[in-house]
Amino acid sequence: MSDPDSLEPPLNVLAAWHRRGQGLLEPMRRLARRSSVAAVDAATRQQADAIVDWFDRCISVHYADEERDLFPALIESMAGSDPVCLRELIDGLRDDHDALASAWRDLRPSFAALAAGSPSTLDSTRVDALIARGERLFRREDQELLPMASRLLSDEARQEILASMLERRRRAAP
């Protein structure tokens, strides 16, 4: 996996967001293992709220970083050649983004209920499927996408992506 500190901005920002998402997968698993959460304590609310926030707010910004900025910049960096493997990787990652978002939409009501302090039941099979999908996505991006971007993107392209990312975060801030 990429070490966020070894990458140049904005790639280190993307890698750090992957780490944050990975850090939420185990709490998701623990909550799902409880099957039915009837008594919602402060720790459960806090975990569920962090999960809901990351999926509702953070992941949409992160996907935009990749799909609106990084993917097109990578394709542009290959101008004049036929980047078939790069296009296949990007198309696959877009499909993975869509599948993870769909899995989240199914689980969101249960996590939102917990974040609000209401009892809820989590389907551990669906949570496990979302976690597996997320782990595969983070692994592909860390092991394939970010190293490729590190090799192919010019300093100018990185700066343009970073400026766009910072503006997106400024607009998305609560």
Which helices and strands occur, and which strands form pairs?
Layout: H1 11-33, E1 36-37, H2 42-77, H3 84-115, E2 120-121, H4 124-152, H5 155-172
Helix pairs in contact: 1-2, 1-4, 2-3, 2-5, 3-4
Largest sheet: 2 strands, antiparallel
Which CATH first-tier class would you pick? Mainly Alpha
Overall, the morphology is: elongated
The CATH topology label is: Four Helix Bundle (Hemerythrin (Met), subunit A)
The neighbouring-strand order within the major sheet is 1-2
Computed Rg: 17 Å
Task: Tell me the total number of β-strands.
Answer: 2
Please bin the fraction of helical residues.
Answer: over 70%
Low-confidence segments: none
Overall domain count: 1
Put simply, the count of helices is: 5
Straight-line N-to-C gap: 31 Å
Q: Tell me which CATH architecture applies here.
A: Up-down Bundle
Q: Overall pLDDT, averaged?
A: 89
Oligomerization state: single chain
CATH-level-4 superfamily name: nmb1532 protein domain like
Structural class: mainly alpha
Instruction: Estimate what percentage of residues fall within beta strands.
Output: under 5%
Order of helices and strands: HEHHEHH
Any overview of this molecule?
There is one protein chain. It contains five helices and two strands; from the N terminus they run H-E-H-H-E-H-H. It is mainly α. The protein has a single domain (4-172), classed as nmb1532 protein domain like (Four Helix Bundle (Hemerythrin (Met), subunit A), Up-down Bundle), CATH 1.20.120. Strands 1-2 form a two-stranded antiparallel ribbon. Helix 1 packs antiparallel against helix 2 and helix 1 (11-33) packs antiparallel against helix 4 (124-152). The radius of gyration is 17 Å and the shape is elongated. The two termini are 31 Å apart.
